[in-house]
Specification:
The chain has 18 helices and 8 strands. With 363 residues, it is of the alpha/beta class.
Length: 363
């Protein structure tokens, strides 16, 4: 994700050196209470900070000075998913902030479903900007972070200079609640969004073996897992999520074992209820966003996705409608040989596009 090869060569080894204790802890070779290292972050030029936002202590990582670029991760990740972008954007002259969003990482949050409405999540973004002393930002979102960015443009348009959305195109509000529409589309087949709706069900499966779940989930949606995913047979809606995933036969190419261990520690400590509650508000958000039915996005926008991203395939209609639903669309980038975890799988290419676009809309 770095726009300079020299930066890429410096950052990746640096990010890996700091995970030894967590890797040993996760493997069982080293015994240490999670609380003893929960605040320890991978080494880098970034700084770990917190901000109080409406009673929620938001943890974020910051690097650089200049106009604000706010990076919002997706499911199931955290600030670490932007480890390649932080130094690249800081080097390009920006103040880069990557928070652990509500329910994730060192931010955490309650397990109450109602606390994860889209209005609360957008409020976290604008509240964090207030705490940073910033009036506006370029908002970059991946996966559910992209959904957050699209809705922030509607709910707080004056706070957003421009948007970079990754993997998830804008989904203009329609006349059917989203979960009902998904149920109708998939029939009796398994769908992970539908599966996530009942509190406690997915948590029991995913928390039984956090490491196995994360590794399989990451692999299945990556470019490396694309061929295995295509060979999987459709499962009924009585299946579990792990039944629909392909498990890698070795380490992930774009995520070291030590980096995976950091994610495992975070989700082992917090559980998955908070992150899953983002999905459990889809229909409620649809109700609350009624005033924005038919709304278009006029902010300057760049959309980036991986050619092998299964999410892009499942949202193809929304993607094809971007030129009409997002009149502010300036650039669309589809990266070959890249899957869903685009900023981690293809960091150099993504960083090159990010810097060029943000330079255009910020200078």
């Amino acid at each position: 994700m770095l726009h300079l090869n020299a930066t890429a060569e410096f950052n990746v080894p640096c990010a890996r050196r700091g995970f030894l204790k967590r890797a040993l802890y996760t493997s069982g070779l080293f015994t240490l209470a999670p609380s003893a290292f929960a605040q320890a972050l991978p080494p880098g030029e970034w700084k770990s900070k917190t901000a109080e936002v409406a009673g929620l202590r938001i943890h974020y990582v910051e690097q650089g000075t200049g106009p604000l670029v706010l990076l919002c991760h997706g499911f199931p990740e955290g600030w670490l998913s932007w480890r390649h972008q932080l130094p690249a954007l800081a080097q390009a002259g920006y103040r880069v902030v990557a928070p652990d969003l509500r329910g994730y990482g060192l931010t955490g949050g309650s397990k109450a479903v109602t606390d994860y409405s889209i209005k609360s999540l957008v409020g976290d973004v604008t509240g964090l900007m207030d705490a940073l002393g910033e009036k506006s930002c370029v908002l970059v979102g991946h996966d559910f972070g992209a959904v957050l960015a699209w809705n922030a443009a509607l709910l707080a348009p004056e706070r957003i200079k421009a948007i970079v959305a990754m993997s998830v195109p804008y989904n203009q509000r329609r006349d059917t609640p989203p979960v009902a529409a998904i149920r109708r589309a998939v029939g009796g087949n398994f769908n992970y969004i539908v599966y996530f709706q009942n509190p406690g069900v997915a948590e029991r499966e995913l928390e039984a073996n956090v490491s196995r779940f994360l590794k399989a989930f990451y692999y299945t949606a990556s470019a490396d897992g694309a061929s295995d995913l295509q060979r999987l047979s459709p499962r009924s809606n009585r299946s579990g999520l792990m039944d629909t995933l392909a498990e890698p036969r070795g380490p992930l190419k774009w995520l070291s074992d030590a980096e995976l261990a950091y994610y495992v520690e975070q989700f082992t400590r917090n559980g998955f209820s908070g992150p899953l509650n983002w999905y459990r508000n889809l229909d409620k958000n649809w109700e609350n966003m009624k005033p924005f039915e038919g709304a278009t996005i006029s902010h300057p926008v760049m959309f980036i996705a991986g050619e092998q991203d299964p999410v892009l395939r499942s949202t193809r209609t929304n993607f094809e409608r971007l030129t009409s639903t997002v009149p502010g669309l300036k650039r669309t980038v589809i990266l070959p040989n890249c899957g869903h975890w685009i900023q981690q799988e293809c960091p150099i290419e993504v960083n090159r596009e990010l810097v060029a676009f943000i330079d255009q809309v910020s200078r």
